[in-house]
Design a protein that fits this description.
Elements (H helix, E strand, L loop, with lengths): L11 H29 L3 H9 L16 H27 L5 H26 L5 H28 L3
Helix pairs in contact: 1-5, 2-5, 3-4, 3-5, 4-5
């Protein structure tokens, strides 16, 4: 079974399966990051505007409205569930690498903290705690770096470990 062995000891077929999964996951993840960039301009003000609207800004190039309670709950709910599964699966794969145990623990656990801070922060921002836009931005960046780090560690372990 895949979970009982290190990644470097997997058969070529299993390594190809994991690689195909991670390539598709990578494309999906970074498509989402592109969407975030398009909707927030990767700035705290853009994050705030995306969830709270910009109706009072007469100079806005694009009119945005505050998300409804149903919209914000749907965003938080679906993202927390789906991204948790992504990081659970990558965490299992990271757990089967031979990387330093501290780095391995960080890459396995940090994303879940970032999920809570990012999407909890979005809800709190929407609720009126405006400074949460900074928490959302920093935790989203940390989540992305953890994702990239996990991919590097997994691929390195599968193809470049002795």
């Amino acid at each position: 079974m895949i979970i009982s062995q290190s990644l470097k000891d997997q058969s070529k077929e299993v390594k190809h399966l994991i690689s195909a999964f991670l390539v598709v996951l990578n494309i999906g993840y970074f498509t989402g990051i592109t969407f975030v960039d398009d909707t927030t301009d990767q700035s705290p003000e853009g994050i705030e505007e995306n969830y709270l609207g910009n109706e009072s800004d007469e100079a806005a190039m694009e009119m945005k409205f505050k998300k409804s309670k149903q919209e914000i709950l749907n965003i938080v709910h679906t993202h927390m569930l789906s991204i948790s599964v992504i990081f659970f699966l990558t965490g299992i794969l990271v757990s089967k690498t031979s990387v330093n145990s501290i780095l391995r623990k960080i890459l396995m656990i940090e994303p879940f903290l970032s999920i809570l801070l990012t999407f909890g922060g979005i809800y709190l921002l929407w609720s009126g705690i405006i400074w949460m836009k900074y928490v959302v931005m920093v935790s989203g960046i940390a989540m992305t770096f953890a994702f990239i780090g996990a991919l590097i560690v997994i691929f390195k372990s599968m193809y470049f470990s002795k």
